[in-house]
Structures are given as C-alpha cells and as structure tokens.
Amino acid sequence: MLFLLRMLPMGLHFIVAGVLGILIGLCRPFNPDNSRLCARLYSWPALWILRLRLQTDTQALRDHSHACVIIANHQSNYDLFVLGSVVPKRTVTIGKKSLKWVPFFGQLFWLAGNVLIDRGNARKAKQAMLTTTETLQHKDTSIWVFPEGTRNLGKGLLPFKKGAFQMAIAAGVPIIPVCVSTYSTHMQLNRWSSGEIMIRSLPAIPTVGLTLEDIPTLIERCRAQMQQSIYEMDQQITASWTGAAKHALQ
C-alpha cells in the first residue's frame, strides 16, 4: 500500500520536474550546467518521497575543477534520483538517441546539452564520440558515463565497455570513478524508511601518456577499484543494519 502511495507523488514529481527542466533548457539551451540543475530537480524531492537515506563522500568529485570523464556503476532507473544529488557543475552525460522521445525527460535531456548516440548507426555513433572529445578538451565540460552500458540490477558490476576510456585517453583527461552501494535489491519501498545508500567518489586516475593499447589495463584498474569500494560500502551498511537491529532488541 505504501508503495502505491509513493508512486502517485513520484509520477507527479517526474512530470513537474520535467516541465521545470524544459523551461530551464529553453531559457539557456544546451548550457552544460543545465544537467546539474535538472539532476537536482529530480533527485532532492524524490529522495524525500522515497525516504531513502543518502550518505555521500564525493570530495574528489567536487574538488576536481577541470574536465574529466566520470564513470559510475548503473543499477536501476532509480539512479536518476540517487546520483542526481552529486552531479558536479558543467557535466553532461551520454545516452541513447531514443531517450529524446521520452515525454518531458527526453526533451529536457536534449536541451541540457547531453550527448545522444544512435547505437544502431556506427558512423553517427563515432561522430558523437569525436564530439565528446572536443567537449572535454576545449569546453571545460566533463562527461558522465555508465561504462557497463546497461543496468546491472544490483547483481555486481558488469564488464566495462571501452568508450569512456577511449574518450579519456583521446582527450588526455583523468577518469573519476563514482561508486554507489548496492541498493536496488535492498530497497523496501513498502516501508516508511526505504533504505540507506552510500555514494563515494575515488581519486582521479590520470590518462596522460596512455595509448589505446593501455585500455584493457586501465579498464581493469578502474573496475577493480570500484568493486572494492562498493564491497566496503555494502559491508558498512550491513554492519549498520545489524547494529540497529541488536539495539532494537535490547
């Protein structure tokens, strides 16, 4: 019952945030900081409606003042609300061209200056990737990428695709991993308190001097660091739940 009561305001919120985001985009179309503002519009009210407790340790992300490639694990559609609270200034993301046709959100996504890729057209996809390299090098704008390419549903990191790492090496910018604790299999939206989520950004990994031959090693390094961080956060949350349960029984 509580789940249904939450979904009603969430649906309304999705529409209202989309309309407000489109208005922001129309007032300053394709401004690379639109993504951050729109991400907050979606995130803050949603976290309150869903009663998700968020702990963030993203100093490495906040303090990085130059263009970079940000990579994050991708669990579910709720990532829009969870990660929206930590998107830094002048950051755009890469999405499927089909997103453009999602009512409200798609138009907002396009007006926010995000990169839309036609994955079914190799030539256009390659051109879009070249555009992101130009953005990273000359427009002081960072790119947010989910290197798994699809949602992992909270079942562990999927293999990483090469695109994000090719972009970073081509532009000579660092990679900043952003890790989210496993939440999609633990959220309990039928309870008043739906769960606890941790987000942590890791130190920037430089790519200057690397070549395309270094991509496998770079991918393995980033993935290993993210796996370790996610494991540590999951352990912390489990310990917190266990401690709270013992305290309640005393």
From TrEMBL:
Its EC number is 2.3.1.51. Pathway: Lipid metabolism; Phospholipid metabolism; CDP-diacylglycerol biosynthesis; CDP-diacylglycerol from sn-glycerol 3-phosphate: step 2/3. The keyword Lipid metabolism applies. One of its GO terms (biological process) is phosphatidic acid biosynthetic process. It catalyses: a 1-acyl-sn-glycero-3-phosphate + an acyl-CoA = a 1,2-diacyl-sn-glycero-3-phosphate + CoA. GO terms for molecular function: 1-acylglycerol-3-phosphate O-acyltransferase activity. Keywords: Acyltransferase, Lipid biosynthesis, Lipid metabolism, Phospholipid biosynthesis, Phospholipid metabolism, Transferase. Pfam families: Acyltransferase (PF01553). CDD domains: LPLAT_AGPAT-like. Coiled coil: none annotated. It is an enzyme of class 2 (transferase). One of its GO terms (cellular component) is plasma membrane. Residues 68-183 form the Phospholipid/glycerol acyltransferase domain. Belongs to the 1-acyl-sn-glycerol-3-phosphate acyltransferase family. NCBIfam families: AGP_acyltrn. The HXXXXD motif is essential for acyltransferase activity and may constitute the binding site for the phosphate moiety of the glycerol-3-phosphate. This is 1-acyl-sn-glycerol-3-phosphate acyltransferase.
